[in-house]
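Just curious: can you write whichever protein you like plus the matching structure tokens?

***
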Amino acid sequence: MPNSLRYSAFISYSSVDTAFAARLHRDLEAYRLPRRLAQLAHPGQLRRGRLKPLFHDTWDLNAAHDLPAALREAIAQSESLIVVCSPAAATSDWVGREIELFRALHGDGRIRAALIEGDMATSFPPALLGGQGGPVMEPLAADFRRGASARKLGTLKLVAALAGVELDELIQRDAQRRTRRVVALAGASVAAMAVVSVLAVAAVTAREAARLQQARTEGLNEVMLTDVRSRLKRTGRLDLLSTVNEAVLNYYRDQNDLSDSAQEQRARLLQAMGEDDEKRGNLETAAARFAEARRITVALLAASPQDPKRIFGQAQSEYYLGFIAWQRGDGVAARRGFEAYAALAQQLVRKDPSNIDWLMETAYAESNLGMLALRQAGDAPTAERHFTTALSTLQAAANSKPRDVDRQLEVADGYAWLADTERVRGDLAGVAANRTAQRRIIDALLAADPLNVAARTAMLSNELAMARLDAARGQYGAAIARLDRGRADAVAVMKSAPGNAEVASQARAFELFKVRTLLAGPAERRPSPRALAKVLGPCEPRAGGTSDHEIADFCTVLHARILALQGDRRGASRALAMLAISPKGDAYSARWGLNLADEARLAGQSTAQASR
């Protein structure tokens, strides 16, 4: 980052947005970075802990006789460009020219967007997205559309970008500083009141200070549970998510009488923590957190049964408990939770049929019910109806926000479920078509962000499914190549997402399906039983999740087949006797849709042949 330029940033805006631009200019120049972060900022970016001056034409061009020349000089002397995005800015020729001039002088890397109205489609100037015929960009956007809390977060985003510091650390240290200030102000107020012996007034002041501190802290907690958490989920860093969770949880540990809004926030925190626990494979801890969250959401909904926000909170509780029941092998409880979730989602849509978020809840509910139909009963027609309905809604939602990564991933997941349904039907062409559609979406997401762990994890699932398809078609060499490549990719993702049991299970699955594929392939090309056993490895569950027991059963079946190849009939029989095969009585296993009973019968046949 150059440090000899005069301005930290040039603010480009439409005249319609003059008031916002002036306020943004004032907020950015007035913000003083916490001391430790000021030491980490890019050299030359700060003056006594604050950003260098920003260029704002209302103030800085008043004396200019040659406006275009002065403008070019200001842009040339600005290290970054902040574009105030609104429908007026999107149609402003002048804003577009300022963007193009900055790009010509400095490139794309230091262009920031401040979205104040509309959305990317209606408010981003064409030049900001690359212009006519140019490459499409998606610049870092600070969202100022949702009131005071959004204004604070948006300001912090821009400060972090301009100063070259981490946003997450800036939020945390800013919160610490603000809390210290509130406490100091409260203490000073109490001391002053004590001097004049106005104890009653002091008590009121202390209560007001505490109220203000609570409101501010809850506002920051909201930022951490939404924006910060969303960003960290894409990195797959469960350790950093735990840090965010603990930071919010610490606030509630010291609170005895929480407001309704704080209770709602605490329930969402517990749900978020339970979600992370599930990804680590800690189902017992996750279940406890979800149960506690449900106790809160039930009480809140009882107090205000028509409040959409509380209906939504209760819906999430029902879903999470149903999902954990499914993971534990309790199909009855899983259906009860998923059906309750579906009913609440429909209730939300009846209240506001045009709300795309509520419609998406119904899509998730349809996917859950399709999963139950497919995995519990092997009922492909019913499952397909649910999945098709869900995919239609998810596609509509994704089309309304084409740059929303999460919505694109949900569409990709919808195609994956349809592919699983076609596999149960035996329609390999249908499997290929749906998996190809899924892969196109994931490829596009990874091209835009190669480090998105959610997209990389989805790609692992796709690669495993395509390898299974190759094997089903008799293309064993292609299947083995995919499985080796997929395992290497899974190991790479594990390094960037430590503690993620889901990715670890995927890495293990590539090993198991490789053994299965080698056993199914031509005998003359099959490695020795000793080599197969080495690839297979030990079969004990490695964690507490159901997927690990699914892996253990699958591994044991494969182990029995290898023993049969070696002529060890007794060893193979003993291995098969240890199976827990699908304790919930489902037709297909929870994670990979395996018919473990069929796998065991195949192993039994191998054992019988070995005995002859």
About this structure: The domain at 7-165 is CATH 3.40.50.10140 (Rossmann fold). Confidence is low (pLDDT under 50) at residues 182-221, 542-547.
